[in-house]
Amino acid sequence: MPIGPYKRGTPYPLSALVFLLALGSGASGTLLLVFSTRPWPSASALSVLAWCVVAVIGESSAVHLPRGNIHVSSTEAVIVAAYLSVGLAGAMAAVLCATLLYVSHDEGSIEFVINTHPRLTLFNCSHFVLILLAVHFVYRFMGGQDTTAGAVQPALVPAVISAPLFFFLSCILNAWFYMLEEGRSFKRYLADDLARYMPTAFMVSLAAVLVAVAYSRAGITAIALFALPLMLTRLSILAPPEEWL
Q1: How far is CA 5 from CA 33, 58, 70, 111, 129, in A?
Q2: For 3-14, how does the pLDDT look when each residue is reduced to its tens digit (9 = 90+)?
Q3: Residues 170/76, Cβ–Cβ less than 8 Å
Q4: From its phi and psi, is residue 83 left (phi > 0), alpha (psi between -120 and 50) or beta?
Q5: Which band of pLDDT confidence, cut at 50, 70 and 90, is reported for residue 149?
Q6: Mean pLDDT, the chain, as a whole number?
Q7: Taking CA 135 as the corner, what is the angle to CA 159 and CA 155, rounded to the nearest 5 degrees?
Q8: Rounded to an integer, what distance in angstroms lies between the CA atom of residue 107 and that of residue 169?
Q9: Is the pLDDT of residue 83 over 90?
Q10: Which residue, among 229, 236, 154, has the nearest Cα to 197 in the 3D structure?
């Protein structure tokens, strides 16, 4: 997720403001539509709560990368796993919890929603909501079943495609936001700042699919299994594969 201030002392770019307002409006409409028309998971509310807790842990465990001044987390994978496990409404709840309830420790300071700039909270929440909606359409278009009813094993091919797609779309919107707000190079952000972490993100995305499959058989117990991939993701980000040797 993006962090830090834009260039202080200068007017906020109009293009970035329009971008944020468009994202916020689209996300607000999506949340209203989903929560008012989509059925909540028939699985126990405890399963949805568990995914919300894991999502908060994922976002709270974000790693600050000085290069590019960004945070990298496993939140995308958690949201995908929640979607494949308990459906769209449950996953949207996980998005809200992750972006509004996270608590992270960065360079000696505690960061949470109260001391985070509103524009960043708006972007983080809105872009996750809209990407999740896009992934939902792709997953269903490819033949994936609605998992709202619970205990439904996700269709593997649509799931394997949808999981990395979530991370890729998140990277695209982050790069776009930085380009509009700070004038960064769109291509450089993707190719230089994030490319080295994409293999890790892809593997964790596949882990999200496996956890969702396990959830269809073992229920809430499988959600606890996601704690290990989350920790491994944090370690691999702190020390990328080329630095392990």
Answers
A1: 32, 23, 12, 14, 23
A2: 444 555 678 899
A3: yes
A4: alpha
A5: low
A6: 81
A7: 20
A8: 29
A9: yes
A10: 236
